[in-house]
Amino acid sequence: MKVVWEGVMPAVTTKFTTEDTLDLDLFLKNIEAQLKAGVSGIILGGTLGEASTLEDGEKEELVRATVAHVKESVPVIINIAEQSTKGAILAAENAQQFGADGLMMLPPMRYKATAHETVTYFSEVARSTDLPIMIYNNPVDYGIEVTLDMFDTLLKFRNIQAVKESTRDITNITRLRNSFGERLKILCGVDTLAFESMVAGADGWVAGLVCAFPEETVAIYKLAKAGQFKEALAIYRWFMPLLELDINPQLVQNIKLAEVATGLGSEHVRAPRLPLQGEERQRVLRIIETALANRPVLSQLTYS
């Protein structure tokens, strides 16, 4: 189905059993909660999805199960984070074969490519596939920034359509919009900058804490887009301590702990990750418990 790069797109977690196998029942329970909340797409195999530890067969199983479950109600996007151009092209081919509707792409992993190498990497993948692509621009965590000049070159490929904007610089949204207008859709990729990004004109939000709190995430987006900033900001302020769990090296463990609290997941992670322990676990639990005790009532919300 066609990908419309807007709205809330959860970067979903991958659910595991105690035997370290995929827990598809729990995974699809979470997907259903996302759909009921009104998300605009599902993104598989990102950092939150623990993609670096997934086997190819597991990625196929997740894509096929998600595509079958959503029944074309929303597009299914899979992340590509590969070490080689050859590997990225193969991943794109596999994604299309498995039934994915689009790709989210990081620059090459492990090697800090030059601007020319990065543009060539994205270009070769774009040339190899018909699937629409959202480039994940996260120089803070991955060390490579996709600059305006680089986008200017890349946008000759019609299937490069969107950017997951994670530079942490809100003004970059304005620069992108001034440079490329509506040709490049902009989705916020940092939970703690989501409201500000919507006000600045972002088209959507690739979200993390949505995995545990889908309704609140979608409400913030819808209210902000409707110009109801006061209402959106009230929920956002409540949400902020939780959103800060996403900008942390243990974001996977943090968000999975939040999923447990809302009945949408388990704590099982794949080694070398391990569940939170000690004082850090207690700190995160306190944040979650405080948020749940003060959870906003959304039933009275209307969107003008």
UniProtKB/TrEMBL annotation:
Gene3D superfamilies registered for this protein in UniProt: Aldolase class I (3.20.20.70)
Keywords recorded for this protein, A-Z: Lyase
SMART domains the UniProt entry points to: DHDPS (SM01130)
UniProt superkingdom: Bacteria
InterPro entries the record matches: Aldolase_TIM, DapA-like
Similarity annotation: Belongs to the DapA family.
Protein name in UniProt: Dihydrodipicolinate synthase family protein
The organism of origin for this protein: Muriicola marianensis
